Amino acid sequence: MTEQEARAEKGAVRAGKKIPELAAVLAWLMPGLGHYYLGQRSKAVILFCAILLAFVLGVILADFEAVSIPEHKYAFFAQMGSGGPTLLTLFITGGEIGEKGRAIDPLNSIGLLYTMVAGLLNYVVACDAYERAARGRHESA
Fold first, then answer.
1. In terms of residue numbers, what domain contains 100?
2. Residue 5 in domain
3. Residue 15: which residues within 8 A CB-CB, separation 6 or more?
4. Residue from 34, 64, 58 nearest 48 by CA
């Protein structure tokens, strides 16, 4: 057995008694938290840093106007994939966008895109956490 196979087996054993639904909800609430719950600490830190960096960078590039339900209805569904960070940003900014008549800054669109990609990526991460917990549960049974 190779070292990589041994690590994969060890990760599956650690995830053996975990609840898949809880892993997915934790992963949605905070990027990487589902994998942390499953015992995959290194992966959790990497996912947390990557997704949160993309989200925060997007919010900053968009001058804190990326997360808004009335202005970006469809983008908001993608952003909600980030869970906690999106809700926190919405709470802090109140979902307010600046003046309606002002010129559109290209960085605003890039920032909006970054927040959407972070959210969509976190949906995938939540599904991965669910799958890993479910697979671990079936293998240990």
1. 10-135
2. no
3. 38, 39, 40, 132, 133, 135, 136, 137
4. 34
Closest CA to 93 of 70, 74, 65, 73: 65
- What's this model's pTM, rounded to 2 decimal places? 0.78
Q: In angstroms, how far apart are the furthest CA atoms of the chain?
A: 64
Total number of domains in the chain: 1
Helices (runs of H) and strands (runs of E) counted in the chain? 7, 0
Distance separating alpha carbons of residues 114 and 58, to the nearest angstrom: 5
Range 28-55 burial, b when 16+ CB lie within 10 A, else e: bbbbbbbbbbbbbeebbeebbebbbebb
In this predicted model, what pLDDT tens digit does every residue of 89-138 receive, in sequence order?
988 888 776 665 455 678 888 999 999 999 999 999 999 999 999 988 65
Tokens read off for 14: 């650690």
pLDDT tens sequence across 21-66: 999 999 999 999 999 999 999 999 999 999 999 999 999 999 888 8
Determine, yes or no, domain membership for 2: no
Dihedral-angle region of residue 18 (phi above 0 means left; psi in -120 to 50 means alpha; beta otherwise): beta
